[in-house]
Design a protein that fits this description.
By secondary structure, this protein is of the alpha+beta class. The protein has one domain (2-123): Orthogonal Bundle (Transferase(Phosphotransferase), domain 1). The chain is 24% helix and 31% strand. The protein has two helices and ten strands. It has helices spanning 29-45, 78-92, and strands at 2-6, 10-14, 19-24, 54-58, 63-67, 71-72, 94-96, 104-107, 112-115, 121-123. The strands form three sheets. A five-stranded antiparallel beta sheet has the order 1-2-3-5-4. Strands 6-8-9 form a three-stranded antiparallel beta sheet, with helices on one face. The termini are far apart.
C-alpha cells in the first residue's frame, strides 16, 4: 500500500485497487472516527457526488475504507475552495470544520474537485428536506 499520510492523528494509505484506508489515532480518535463515518453516510444519503464513499467500517479499530477522490489540488484558488465548502453546507447540510486547501482533491476520472477528511464536521438539517411548518 502507498502511504499518503502518517501523522499523530491519522494514518492514511492507498491500496492497489485505489481504495483509501484510514486509521484514526491520537486525541479523541473514537469521536473523530464516529463523526467521519456518520458524515460520509449522510453525504451518500443526500446524494453528494464529490466526496468519498464508505466501503468498510471497523469501529473497534477506528479504521475505515473508502473510495479515493483523486490527488491533492494545491493550485486551487481560494475563491473555488470557499465555493466548494459553501455548496457542501448549503446543498447537503454538512459544515466542514476544517475547510482548508488540504481537504480538497481533484479527481481526473470524474473531472471534478472533491472534499475529504470529515472527522471535524457538523451535520446540519437536510436543506432538501421538507420545510418546517409554521403556525399562525
Amino acid at each position: 500500500m502507498k502511504e499518503l499520510k502518517d501523522g499523530i492523528r491519522a494514518e492514511v494509505r492507498l491500496d492497489w485497487m485505489n481504495r483509501v484506508h484510514k486509521r484514526l489515532r491520537g486525541t479523541d480518535a473514537d469521536k473523530r472516527y464516529a463523526t467521519e463515518v456518520e458524515v460520509l453516510k449522510v453525504l451518500e444519503e443526500r446524494g453528494c457526488p464529490n466526496v468519498p464513499r464508505l466501503l468498510e467500517e471497523h469501529p473497534e479499530e477506528y479504521y475505515f475504507v473508502s473510495t479515493s477522490c483523486g490527488q491533492p489540488a494545491p493550485n486551487i484558488s481560494d475563491k473555488k475552495i470557499k465555493q466548494l465548502f459553501a455548496e457542501l453546507e448549503q446543498k447537503y447540510g454538512i459544515r466542514h470544520l476544517d475547510a482548508e486547501r488540504r481537504n480538497v482533491t481533484y479527481d481526473p476520472h470524474e473531472g471534478r474537485f472533491c472534499l475529504i477528511d470529515f472527522e471535524l464536521a457538523e451535520i446540519l438539517p437536510d436543506p432538501s428536506g421538507p420545510a418546517e411548518k409554521t403556525t399562525l
